[in-house]
């Protein structure tokens, strides 16, 4: 189904923006920092963005790890649980290196139990954490997201 008006399209975008931001464990401030915007601007956008430019919307989508078209496609299949998928990919990469959870935790500077919680999908992670795991596992951050 195609949104019937620009207002519907804007509402679809801001709803998806908020959902993705929260799923990534990002505050409005953290997303704003990534985009060079303040928290109030992100809040205003999430409350309704009829005048949001295409360029700004695309930049927000990129910061949220997706494309503008994916955020506006109501027909898109729901994404699998990204937290669970991230944890599974971390486990796959870790075991491929022959490491146990303690070894990975030491490389990142965290507790083994935290690695276990992430691998089992019980712990959401920040983008900084994503980067730490990617660096420790010698992969691109996006390799842990797809």
From TrEMBL:
SUPFAM superfamilies: lambda repressor-like DNA-binding domains. Residues 17-71, 90-144 form the HTH cro/C1-type domain. The lineage of its organism: Bacteria, Pseudomonadati, Pseudomonadota, Betaproteobacteria, Burkholderiales. CDD domains: HTH_XRE (cd00093). This is Transcriptional regulator. It comes from Ralstonia solanacearum (Pseudomonas solanacearum). The keyword Electron transport does not apply. Keywords: DNA-binding. The keyword DNA-binding applies. GO terms for molecular function: DNA binding. PROSITE patterns: HTH_CROC1. SMART domains: HTH_XRE.
